[in-house]
Amino acid sequence: KTNEQRLWNSLMEMGEIGGTEKGGCCRLALTDLDKQARDLFTEWCEAAGCTVRVDKIGNVFARRPGKNNDLPPVVMGSHIDTQPTGGKFDGVYGVLSGLEVIRTLNDNNIETDHPIEASIWTNEEGSRFAPAMVASGVFAGVFDLEYGLSRADLDGKTMGEELQRIGYAGEHEVGSPVKAFFEAHIEQGPILEEEETSIGVVTDAQGQRWYEVTLTGQEAHAGPTPMLRRKDALLGASKIVQEVNNIGLANQPNACSTVGLLQVFPNSRNVIPGEVFFTIDFRHPNDDVLSKMDQQLRDVCAKIADEMGLEMKFEQIWYSPPVPFNTSCVDSVRQAAEDAGYSHRDIVSGAGHDACYIARVAPTGMVFVPCENGISHNEEENAKPEDLHAGCNVLLQAVLNQACL
Amino acid sequence: KTNEQRLWNSLMEMGEIGGTEKGGCCRLALTDLDKQARDLFTEWCEAAGCTVRVDKIGNVFARRPGKNNDLPPVVMGSHIDTQPTGGKFDGVYGVLSGLEVIRTLNDNNIETDHPIEASIWTNEEGSRFAPAMVASGVFAGVFDLEYGLSRADLDGKTMGEELQRIGYAGEHEVGSPVKAFFEAHIEQGPILEEEETSIGVVTDAQGQRWYEVTLTGQEAHAGPTPMLRRKDALLGASKIVQEVNNIGLANQPNACSTVGLLQVFPNSRNVIPGEVFFTIDFRHPNDDVLSKMDQQLRDVCAKIADEMGLEMKFEQIWYSPPVPFNTSCVDSVRQAAEDAGYSHRDIVSGAGHDACYIARVAPTGMVFVPCENGISHNEEENAKPEDLHAGCNVLLQAVLNQACL
Lengths: 405, 405
Ligand SMILES: NC(=O)NCCC(=O)O
Ligand SMILES: NC(=O)NCCC(=O)O
Known about the structure:
The structure is a homodimer. By secondary structure, chain A is an alpha+beta fold. Chain A is built from 12 helices and 16 strands. In chain A, helix 3 links the parallel strand 3 and strand 4 (116-120). The first copy, chain A, starts with a helix and ends with a helix. At the A-B interface, strand 8, helix 8, strand 9, strand 10 and strand 11 of A face strand 8, helix 8, strand 9, strand 10 and strand 11 of B. The structure holds N-(aminocarbonyl)-beta-alanine (2 copies). One N-(aminocarbonyl)-beta-alanine sits between chains B (90, 124-126, 132, 351-353) and A (221, 223, 270). Chains A, B: Its cofactor is Zn(2+).
């Protein structure tokens, strides 16, 4: 069994890097805070006897040798970047429960056949740099390295530049054989908590489509410009925000649709907005429904832009299809929960995870634990030490199951 | 007659300070560019024999002595700050046509009884610091000096701090007797151009109400958070944007209603927006209709916030009632246009102007000239040299009419 208190203490110590007054964490990808958190993880892993390597997209791998180091490793991990209003568990729990598994193996002098690794994947959140899961995507060959390094934030700074700046542009090629990959994560939804279940055995992750839309009208004076002569880009955008919501509602159950980011130009009180840039996030576990939502969105955006005389640039910038996880890995997770006597249920992930991309190149599974009120991407995000501990124990057993011949 | 080419050249030279690639001007209030423009105006006025003084809110007055300098001055002027996407004429035309009048009086050795002044009023646009017309408002006693100096931009910098920083926190008390005030300005609306009329004799300005609204919902993950559990502040704001537009349409003719500024927090693609801050600008020439619009807005905002379970902070931050200009000054403008043989018509200003506040403490009139397609607060703002010249000639005659006993 893993050490509940040690895992909790590590989470709390790491959570101070970027910790906010409200008890959350703001540690955007490739900022100085991200560097500090990476440094601390590296220090802890080296103290646990691991060798740490960094690849060209900044992914960090801490290796505990196995009996046969020519065998591919069993890898655990997640991300340590957060949302601007993030919490202390989303992502970092998967990284530090990996470290806790390694510490526990050390405590018990357990030798595995395969080497074991705990990993950090760069820029999973997709908040500072879009899309999400960029670096696990490069690892899985979904994206080119150049694509990954050229992702830019709203100020135009690229991931490549920022990796250089914080000293995490590693020398290792991105991508290498993996025996199995496991990611422990808070659920980020309400199901486990409501059903008073400790472990979510993640069988699938829903699909996503992300869009960027720019509407261009005409800046003009809010006072002397008659209502019927206006080309108000914000009025158009606000209609699309409504329709995005309507499409989500029309495709229940399970559809989600969100406008999370919106910028107005010139953003002046007495100027009719000339340009609005905004993003759309669509999700559904069924790829056909996701395609239908895509078509509905394209139709309604074109209609609104046309009716209002606005120019529109509409781009789908990301498509991540629904992911079925590997049966053997899913079984390892379910069996581990069962053996430990934890209540568990199969569950579909509402969020994207690095595991979704790694699943393309290695057998992959995920372990979910409940979080308070199902809330994440919010400074109030919270989870119970005993649930985190249960998830970590399941991770340990699932890993052992795959790492021993 | 004033000198068309000299006026145009001055406008073009001043327009380079903050000049944009698209031919517009971005010279926000109390920035380094505003300082540069103030310095240039001061230099030009001193070269024209004027004495320049600055008051405690940064208003600049360049005085050409009259026969009797104990008499209150006839003052001309406007502002030199612009919108982020501003043009080369809005405001600065009223300042530099004042200077052109003084230069013309010098050329012709004309002595007036009253002294004559050309003026710059600080932060008229209300874009960097809200509300608009702050410093002419302080001059007119509508606002306290403390209120004016404490206006803050979105970064929290105050007008007082920024005046100090650029060296335009003058020592003169704000407010002094004025014989008459005249402001020349581009129309900023389509009427004069469409009617092929050179001069707008401004009889009134419409009333305005400005609001600030903050909607607070709950940040949550865009993926695993079911549609019906959301408190999406942007969805609420976008409904209000629609209703603001509907209120404008429902109060035609003449009503204008605009959401020009909107900020989303945390503004991340995969986070349901937890907070949205936005502004509303309402206008109508009839104060009763403006009050009716105000009530409609309050009702609809409360309803939407309530239905969506959002917290709302709603504040009217500015009310500027409709302004009737002084009959004697309006007559001076009309007579000057008539005498010079310019086509003219009476017109109501859709925009607010420093003249609206000065009208409370001195007889005040305004001269409008056409601008291209009625467009302003846009880098494409444009006006014809001959129209600007006509307006300047009308200004000269109206001023002489008031400045000679
Ligand atoms: N787990 C998580 O919050 N991932 C961010 C990517 C997404 O939006 O699904
Ligand atoms: N003239 C002008 O653009 N003034 C700005 C204040 C307003 O919004 O009316």
